[in-house]
Design brief:
Layout: H1 3-24, H2 27-42, H3 49-81, H4 87-117, H5 122-132, H6 136-147, H7 153-170, H8 176-196, H9 201-217
Length: 222
């Protein structure tokens, strides 16, 4: 490797490290992740201050570790986009950046669940997952059952399993938009399945919204 290439590589690494340090050692950022984690833990009702602190620290660190990987990935991609490489070469290297980040996130995901498992049972870990993903799974699953009141057990199982898979991905999302996008992707899969099962989802959705509106209108006033 030429001295010029080595110098460029060093500068690139320094650029990445600088961004990482700015984000992940920032006291305000650490405070935000601690607050986000604390809100999730508060809903677990653990009634054990020591355990609450331990779980909160695990969740907050997960937010920071995820963000570090994603920030470094995004910085590397931006650097590649502004490089003198051909578009084809840029695309190739960008894809490698994404694959590498996904691999790191996958390992982090497993490690994170293992850490939670030292403090929480499966039911509480599920609550943490829902807390990290804004409760989209239970809300969506309940919505499908309310909209399609004649779902078979097999159909319910298909819907639930796909939403669980979506949640596993959404947990690692770097933003609210990315988390909701994962659920959107899997809802598309679910809707295709239901359409193939004979449901007219446009009509079912319209009828459901009418029923919900009627329920709200007929609620007793407090």
């Amino acid at each position: 490797m030429s001295i010029k290439k080595i110098s460029i590589s060093i500068l690139f690494l320094l650029f990445i490290c600088k961004i990482s340090a700015q984000q992940h050692l920032n006291p305000e950022y650490i405070k935000v992740t601690n607050e986000r984690a604390a809100k999730i833990v508060a809903k677990l009702e653990l009634s054990n201050a020591t355990k609450e602190t331990a779980v909160s620290n695990i969740i907050a660190q997960q937010f920071r570790d995820l963000s570090k990987i994603q920030d470094e990935r995004d910085a590397a991609i931006e650097k590649l986009k502004s490089s003198d490489l051909s578009k084809e070469k840029q695309k190739e290297k960008i894809e490698k950046c994404k694959v590498k980040a996904d691999q790191l996130i996958g390992k982090l995901h497993k490690s994170y669940l293992k850490k939670l498992g030292t403090q929480l049972n499966d039911a509480k870990i599920t609550e943490v997952k829902d807390g990290m993903t804004y409760g989209v799974l239970p809300i969506t699953y309940a919505g499908y059952q309310d909209m399609l009141r004649n779902l078979t057990e097999e159909q319910k199982s298909y819907i639930y399993k796909n939403l669980v898979e979506a949640r596993e991905h959404a947990m690692d999302g770097g933003s609210s938009k990315e988390k909701h996008a994962w659920f959107g992707k899997y809802k598309g899969r679910i809707n295709n399945y239901l359409s193939a099962q004979g449901y007219n989802l446009n009509k079912e959705s319209t009828d459901w919204h009418d029923r919900v509106a009627a329920r709200e209108k007929n609620k007793p006033k407090k």
